[in-house]
Amino acid sequence: HVLKCCQKVLAWVPVAFIALVVAWSYYAYVVELCVFTISSTAEKVVYLVVFHLSFVMFVWSYGKTIFTSPATPSNEFCLSKADKEQYEKEERPESQQEILRRAAKDLPIYTTTASRAIRYCDRCQLIKPDRCHHCSACDVCVLKMDHHCPWVNNCVGFSNYKFFLLFLMYSLLYCLFVAATVLQYFIKFWTVSSKAFLVVVYLFNPACVIEGCISMLSLTIY
C-alpha cells in the first residue's frame, strides 16, 4: 500500500516539472521582458496579447490531456457472473475460448489474436474491443490506447488523443513565439548587455527545456 502511494506521488513529478518550467517562462516573458525590458508600449501590447493567447491554449490543452479520464469499454464487454465463474473454473484454453466466443457473439465488435483467439483481459475481466489495451500504470483497459505518457501522467487514447495533439501543437507555437520575440535580446547578449543577458537566461533556458519535452512527446507518437 505504501509503495503504491509512493508510485502515485512520483508519477506527478514530470507534470510538476513541466508546470514549474512553464511558470518560470511566464514570469520571465511577462515581467522580465515585457515589463522591464521592452520600452515600446505598442510592442509590449502586441507581445502580451499574442503570448497570452498561445499560453492559455497551451495550458488548456495540457490540462485537458492530464485530467480527461481514459475511456474504458462499456459494461456489455464484461462477462456475466455465470460466464466469469465458468471461465475461471475451466483449465483448458479451448474451453475458455468457447466461453468467450459465446459471450462475444452479441457484441458490436471484438478482436482476435493471430491464432483467432478472442482477446480477453484477465485483469479487468472483459473482452477487448478493437485497439483496446490494458495499461499497467492506470490499471484499466483503455479504448484506442496509444501509450501511457509520463509527462501528462495519463493514458493517451480515445478520450484525450485530440487534446494531446493540440497540446503538442500549442506548446510548439508557444516555444517558437517566445524564441522568436526574444531573439533580438539573445543577439544583444553578445554585445555585452547585462539586461539582455538576464532575458536570455530567463527565457531561452525554459524554452529549450519545453522544446526538448515536445521532441520526446513527438517521438512517442512516431
Automatic annotation (TrEMBL):
Gene Ontology molecular-function annotations: protein-cysteine S-palmitoyltransferase activity
Sorted UniProt keywords: Acyltransferase, Membrane, Transferase, Transmembrane, Transmembrane helix
Record keyword Transferase present: yes
Domain Palmitoyltransferase DHHC residues, every copy: 118-217
EC number: 2.3.1.225
GO CC term (a single one): membrane
Domain statement: The DHHC domain is required for palmitoyltransferase activity.
Protein name: Palmitoyltransferase
Species of provenance: Peucedramus taeniatus
Gene name of the encoded protein: Zdhhc20
